[in-house]
């Protein structure tokens, strides 16, 4: 990083930088006043006078272009210098949409300054505008905003559906509950992958109403599963970290559960290790849910960087062994050792284990032998709409333990 002294003093009429200079830092005015002007046809056009606390000189840095204006001290002035790295890193780390908006704003301001005192044709404006959206990252950010809009529309038009995948007791192969999995068949885009569109929903405010709808629908459907089978079943609902930061999350969940009349311990909230990125608020909310009797399931266990330390931070009731382990448990000795290790650990901690992605009998029997409590996977049933799953349960055509 280039080192520069933090403060610099300027005399009256001293030039801070001139139009066309290379931009290497931005400034905050500690005291005094700065005039910004633009030179056009050998004539100076003052565009603004800035005072204490104002920032200037940032445009050239953010765009990586020469100075588009001249800055002169109007009186003895003290400036605080901000390095290129300080600003540039922040913009690079920002949300891609925010980054794009900043770039567009800067580009527009520059264009306005360039055209000062000159009439501009509509065509020129259109060409100029499209320039600012060029580039791979700009395109990506625009696509994301468009996709977010599609998701909002789909929610408004009730295009989302819930599917349910049975979770069985691995000793008996009897269905004990389900995992609720969202589906979106867009009339224009076709079937969309939930891991992809839920990630986008999580990055926008849509996750709050959408997550609420998922919970409501899944708990209502659990009641139907219970009524129609006469069995005491549970529902596992995937909850994203962002939902736990909603101040109304707990009261909404509790009100929905009470209204539908399902005991809290029949509802499992599936969380991944990513919730730790949402800070202590999310963890506190999860703890509150657990105090109310809801069960907590740690999903995709073993795929993160520090799954073990998370088990120390958060008390959970269930642990789902990720598909990447179960899929290879038969052919790969290392996977087998890891799965044994995870299952022993969960037994020691009094946590129920769920093996995900079970695709054949051999895999089911192997996990059964290792002491895994529950199983879920295409071998037992694929996720499907409630009517189809009810048909399957009633026809008793599910696999049986021999
Ligand atoms: P996940 O929570 O790990 O869900 C399990 C995924 O494995 C599901 O994919 C399920 O269909 C699939 N699966 C189940 N059994 C088998 C099997 O035997 N073999 C194979 N190859 N796959 C199996 P799906 O439904 O495409 O969901 C993908 C991810 O999208 C989920 O992963 C979850 O992270 C997210 N997701 C789905 N529904 C929701 C939701 O309602 N809310 C939230 N926040 N995320 C959801
Ligand atoms: Ca899950
Ligand atoms: Ca999973």
Question: Overview of this structure, please?
Answer:
There is one protein chain. The chain is α/β, with parallel strands linked by helices and 402 residues long. It is built from 15 helices and 17 strands. The model has no long low-confidence stretch (mean pLDDT 88).
Number of H- or I-type helical stretches: 15
Largest sheet: 8 strands, mixed, barrel
Give the percentage of residues in beta strands.
15-25%
Query: Total number of β-strand segments?
Result: 17
Query: Can you tell me the overall shape?
Result: elongated
Low-confidence stretches: none
Class by helix and strand content? alpha/beta
| Overall helicity | 40-55%
Topology, element by element:
Layout: E1 7-10, E2 15-17, E3 25-31, E4 34-40, E5 43-50, E6 55-56, H1 58-63, E7 70-73, E8 77-83, H2 84-93, H3 96-114, H4 122-132, H5 136-156, E9 160-169, E10 175-186, E11 190-192, H6 194-203, H7 207-229, E12 234-238, H8 241-244, H9 249-260, E13 267-271, H10 279-291, E14 295-301, H11 307-313, E15 318-321, H12 323-326, H13 333-348, E16 352-355, H14 361-369, E17 374-375, H15 386-395
Parallel strand pairs: 10-12, 12-13, 13-14, 14-15, 15-16, 16-17
Antiparallel strand pairs: 1-8, 2-7, 3-6, 3-8, 4-5, 4-7, 9-10, 9-17, 10-11
Helix pairs in contact: 3-5, 7-9, 7-15
The site of ligand C2E has 19 residues, from β10, α6 and β14.
Quick summary:
With 402 residues, the chain is α/β, with parallel strands linked by helices. The chain has 15 helices and 17 strands. The strands form three sheets. Strands 9-10-12-13-14-15-16-17 form an eight-stranded mixed β-barrel, surrounded by five helices.
């Amino acid at each position: 990083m280039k080192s520069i002294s933090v403060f610099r003093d300027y005399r009256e009429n001293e030039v801070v930088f001139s139009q066309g200079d290379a931009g290497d830092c931005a400034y905050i005015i500690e005291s005094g006043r700065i005039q910004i002007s633009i030179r056009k046809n050998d004539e100076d056009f003052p565009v603004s006078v800035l005072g204490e606390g104002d920032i200037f000189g940032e445009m050239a840095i953010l765009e990586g272009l020469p100075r588009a204006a001249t800055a002169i001290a109007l009186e003895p002035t003290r400036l605080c210098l901000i390095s290129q790295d300080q600003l540039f890193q922040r913009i690079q780390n920002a949300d891609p949409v925010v980054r794009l908006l900043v770039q567009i704003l800067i580009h527009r301001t520059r264009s306005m300054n360039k055209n000062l005192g000159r009439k501009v044709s509509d065509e020129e404006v259109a060409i100029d505008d499209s320039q600012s959206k060029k580039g791979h990252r700009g395109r990506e950010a625009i696509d994301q905003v468009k996709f977010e809009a599609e998701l909002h529309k789909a929610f408004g038009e009730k295009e989302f559906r819930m599917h349910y995948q049975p979770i069985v007791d691995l000793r008996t192969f009897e269905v004990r509950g389900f995992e609720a999995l969202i589906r979106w068949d867009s009339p224009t885009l076709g079937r969309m992958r939930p891991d992809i569109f839920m990630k986008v929903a999580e990055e926008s405010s849509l996750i709050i109403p959408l997550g609420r709808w998922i919970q409501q629908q899944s708990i209502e459907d659990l009641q139907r599963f219970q009524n129609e089978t006469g069995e005491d079943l549970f529902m596992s609902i995937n909850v994203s970290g962002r939902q736990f930061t909603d101040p109304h999350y707990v009261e909404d969940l509790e009100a929905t559960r009470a209204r539908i009349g399902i005991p809290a311990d029949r509802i499992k909230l599936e969380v991944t290790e990513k919730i730790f990125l949402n800070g202590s608020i999310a963890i506190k909310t999860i703890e509150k849910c657990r105090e109310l009797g809801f069960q907590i399931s740690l999903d995709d266990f073993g795929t993160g960087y520090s799954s073990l330390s998370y088990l120390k931070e958060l008390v959970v009731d269930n642990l789902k062994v990720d598909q990447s382990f179960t899929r290879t448990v038969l052919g790969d000795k290392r996977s087998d050792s890891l799965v044994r290790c995870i299952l022993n650990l969960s037994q020691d901690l009094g946590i129920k284990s769920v093996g995900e992605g079970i695709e054949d009998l051999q895999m089911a029997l192997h996990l059964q032998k290792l002491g895994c409590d529950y199983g879920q996977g295409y071998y037992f049933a694929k996720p499907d709409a409630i009517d189809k799953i009810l048909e399957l349960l009633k026809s008793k055509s599910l696999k049986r333990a021999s």
